[in-house]
Amino acid sequence: MKPSNDELLFLALGGSGEIGMNVNLYGTAGKWVMVDLGLTFGDSGYPGIDLVLPDLEFIEKRRKDLLGIVLTHGHEDHIGAIPYLAADLDVPLYATPFTAGLIRGKLDEEGIADKVKLHVIPNEGSFQLGPFGFRYVPLAHSIPEGNALLIDTPHGKIFHTGDWKIDEQPLLGTPSTAAELEAIGDEGILALVCDSTNVFNDDASGSEAMVREGLDGVIGAATGRVLVTTFASNAARVQTLGEVARDTGRQLCVAGRSLDRIIRVAKATGYLKDFPPTIDVDTAMRLPPREVMIIATGGQGESRAALARVAFDSHPIKLSRGDTVVFSSKQIPGNELAIGRIQNQLAAKGVLMVTDRQAHVHVSGHPGRPELELMYRWIRPEIVLPVHGELRHMAEQARFALEKGVPQSIVQMNGDVLRLAPGAPKKIADERTGRLVLDGDIILPADGGTMNERRKIALHGVISVTVALDRKRRLVIGDPAVALQGVPVEEDKEDFIADAATAAAKAAGKGERDVEKLKEGIRLAVRRVATEWTGKKPIVLVSIINV
């Protein structure tokens, strides 16, 4: 799969058919460029895993044809995989100043800043990569320097939105005006590659300025200590919360390294200039509760984030009856149980909780239907290519675009190779895509042997059996040793172990000389006992000691 001179190809390696882990490739004239290199987060399907990365096998095999990686903005689902995967690709990165600051911090933490070339492009700047011309186009989002990319190719112009919304009163940055976007449309746009996250929302996302009013009301009425949880990367919300602290006469405490990092990079690149001074945790806990507001991470139920540690009393910040926690973020599907666990723990303390269901304390950073319709009208593309969504989101945006007069739309998934030009857009090939997991310091296939074994252990438990044999006569010496982890026998454990040991001894005493066949016989015998007792099929590990 090498793009020819007379075609323009598109291939998503992540972010299409899922929300998160955005990786998009454009190809022409034998060369590829990558837009974004993000990650997603582990769930119950990945035991012991926090970070999930895209499998870049397709482009790794073609790295000599990859010209660079262009980043739209600084959210983890767009830049988070860079410190783990970019060095192997050995191509330069391109980002605007704030996003570059976040990336540089990640590269420094991994000790690879000298191995990855990072080019800082001015806001609204342009540059050329082989047959591709790039221009940053500022759009409103929940982080500074949310950008679309205007990509000039020999076959037409692409408007790749990144994440965006329309905000008439943005707190950070200056997004492009309707007139500026219409002027881009006047240039002639082949394809609008567009965020699909909120396509089912009939209302526009709303302005960050409206959130300030809602938070002022909730926090102004609170009589105790207030903790507000939001995404660390939502720098616009952090700015809002600084203003709310000032509005309500509270001193501000920031809890969490990720929040500290965002604030530091934002200030270094010219944002958060009027952010109020902060106090440390010890000072916050000494002040009267009515005088303190805390910003913390953990609103999605993350077990190691500040809010979870506060809820379970393993953090210096303490909350009690009469205090308030404000969830200034949208609940991401799949996180309901984790969030509920923390909210139940807070409820047990008598803490009042406020979410976007009770008050206007959050607005989305993604476009609803009215905003999508405006973008179609301004950009006037020949094709709408939905990305950044589950299949239902992308299919709905494709349908909605046609309804609003866009001539063509096409739905794709990770691994679908699309030819955008010449002619009508069409799928021309399938390429393998997948997921990797970061397990400690090791990157592994998400469906490889290690993770499959761990899933089996999590589902069924594990039994280890050790049998001692007389080296010459092959007779069992003593009783086999049996140990369990995660096998549901509880108070019957001793009786179960006795039965399992008896079965192991009987299987070992059959005189089998082939060691591997002997181990397999013991394994099957012990698992059979486990299945009879529990209905489960645990992993059984057998060791033979020759004496």
List the helices and strands and how they pair.
Elements lengths: L7 E7 L8 E6 L2 E5 L4 E2 L9 E4 L2 H4 L5 E5 L5 H4 L2 H8 L3 E3 L1 H14 L7 E3 L5 E4 L2 E7 L8 E7 L2 E5 L17 H9 L4 E5 L12 H14 L4 E4 L5 H13 L3 E5 L1 H12 L9 E2 L1 H6 L5 E5 L9 H6 L12 E4 L8 H13 L3 E3 L14 H11 L3 E5 L3 H13 L4 E2 L6 E6 L4 E5 L4 E5 L2 E4 L3 H12 L1 E8 L11 E5 L7 H16 L6 H20 L4 E8 L1
Parallel strand pairs: 3-6, 6-7, 7-8, 12-13, 13-20, 14-17, 14-18, 15-16, 15-17, 18-19, 20-21, 26-28
Antiparallel strand pairs: 1-2, 1-22, 2-3, 4-5, 5-24, 9-10, 10-11, 11-12, 22-23, 24-25, 26-27
Evaluate the radius of gyration. Answer: 28 Å
Main structural class: alpha/beta
Count up the helices: 16
Mean pLDDT: 94
Spatial arrangement of strands, main beta sheet: 8-7-6-3-2-1-22-23
Profile the largest sheet.
Answer: 8 strands, mixed
The residue fraction in helices comes out at 25-40%
Low-confidence blocks of residues: none
Binned strand content: 15-25%
Distance between the termini: 59 Å
Shape: globular
Q: What is the total tally of β strands?
A: 28
Structure write-up:
With 547 residues, the chain is α/β, with parallel strands linked by helices. Helices cover 32% and strands 24% of the residues. Strand 15, helix 8 (257-268) and strand 16 form a beta-alpha-beta unit. Helix 4 packs across helix 8. The model has no long low-confidence stretch (mean pLDDT 94).
Short overview:
With 547 residues, the protein is of the alpha/beta class.
